[in-house]
Amino acid sequence: MGPGNDTLISEFLLLGFSEEPELQPLIFGLFLSMYLITVLGNLFIILAVSSDSHLHTPMYFFLSNLSLVDICFTSTTVPKMLVNFQTQSKAITYAGCITQLYFFLLFGGLDDFLLAVMAYDRYVGICHPLHYMVIMNPRLCGLLVLMSWVIGVLNSLLQSLIVLPLSFCTDLEIPNFFCELKEVVQLACSDTFLNNMVMYFVAVLLAGGPLAGILYSYSKIVSSICTISSAQGKYKAFSTCASHLSVVSLFYGTILGVYLISAATHSSHSSIAASVMYTVVTPMLNPFIYSLRNRDIKRALKGFFGMAGTKGTIIQG
What we know:
globular, three-stranded mixed sheet
């Protein structure tokens, strides 16, 4: 390939992790384990919510949607990385890279929107408990999720489409284990002013907006909790938010860490490690955060596995 512009490139190279051969099996096993835990953990949350009628509430409806999105979010990056480990290849096709980019932006954005929707749900539940079921009716819950999907699809479609006209030269190495938008744009030989403007505008609007909504909701929640006279009442109100607040802190903390580390160190290894936190580790931890502190989820899981065990016994009998 010559040094000039070439829009018909066939593939990018995902540099990923360590080049040392002895570490490859360890990294492969680690990420395979984390991926399986992520898929199974979030799948158990979905099954628990769908199988227990007591969990057919707005809060758990949003939680099951978040679990589904987390499975899809992790599945956009980790399987391709595992295949590359097995085939001893770092290549990803141009079409594969754009497709991965699209779905990564889609499900990453959905995570962001659903966390904001869940914060609003907790705000209504604590600040307006008497009107909770009237406000958070099934129609509104469905519309909030649908709106999250529509905005997510439009955003990822826009940002993916404006990558297509870019021209790329000889340097096609992405210093990560997946096609990250900023790193793909940085490889372009052609003018990327529009891409950068859209990228930063969307980051402020679609990441800053939900975060502002979450912060506003929790400021109202804290004010409402402070007016509760009994310590037991304060604890009960706070406990309904603890899991969500933990997930929000983990999600935004790791994303912020990615950009702070990449800006401060310019080290690809540090940037990759930070990327792993929000693309792999956070979706893996979410089911544990929501289930370990939640008696309803634990009861539903016990009921689900008990029911499955009973059916198995009947079939064998």
